[in-house]
Amino acid sequence: MSRPDRFTGKAAFVTGAASGIGRATAVAFAREGARVAILDLSVDALRPTTDAIRALGGEVLVLACDVSVPEQVEAAVASTVAAFGRLDMAFNNAGVENKAAPLAEIGLDEWDRILDINLRGTFLCMKHEIAQMLRQGGGVVVNTSSGAGIRGVAGGASYAASKHAIIGLTKSAALDYATSNIRVNAVLPGNIETPMMDRFTGGDIQKAIDLEPVGRLGRPEEIAEAVLWMSSDLGAFVTGAAISVDGGWSL
């Protein structure tokens, strides 16, 4: 249920916000009163998200950023603080899927591409977000892992490795900052109706539906609801958690 003033006066930072889960979460934050910095590789790609937030009367900062580049991430966090005065909630969602292949056939360039964006990018964002949260006295970080973060995926070793590592990163950071009023959690989506799922299945979405015990794909908005709960006072006693929102896929 939407609560229009839950995040009034707060600032959110959402990566991978051009589509899918990132877009849904950025719009949900804005709907509930947050000022939102949205990031993706290009400003043009972010236009639909920007328009959706402005249609709600929300305040949005649009930033082009490659999360694997340290200088760009540092600048994006600094721009957010310059615009909004603070950074209360960060949703590190930017990520890419692998080209399906058994492990021995994965090229080093492809391995590096997945780990650079999914893992290095999450680390860099956390590094600069948490530094700001320490300066202001607290905040909440939510990272996107995956059901592939707690089980193996045939043909997906690089993706699964990156998503397993994000859980370890999340749990370790949660312990690092547990006494600093900074909570760090991860959301683990299952098979969700997103452009990434279209690409991964080659457009044969039924393949993904057949893997879901509940018999359907999840909606990006359902992941957004979990992220907002973790980011709100309702989740105040939750840190270091890896919460599956996957229709039972990872069971």
From TrEMBL:
This is Glucose 1-dehydrogenase. SMART domains: PKS_KR (SM00822). It is an enzyme of class 1 (oxidoreductase). Its EC number is 1.1.1.47. GO terms for molecular function: glucose 1-dehydrogenase [NAD(P)+] activity. Residues 10-192 form the Ketoreductase domain. It comes from Methylobacterium marchantiae. Keywords: NAD, Oxidoreductase. Gene3D superfamilies: NAD(P)-binding Rossmann-like Domain. InterPro entries: KR_dom, NAD(P)-bd_dom_sf, Sc_DH/Rdtase_CS, SDR_fam. Pfam families: adh_short_C2 (PF13561). Belongs to the short-chain dehydrogenases/reductases (SDR) family.
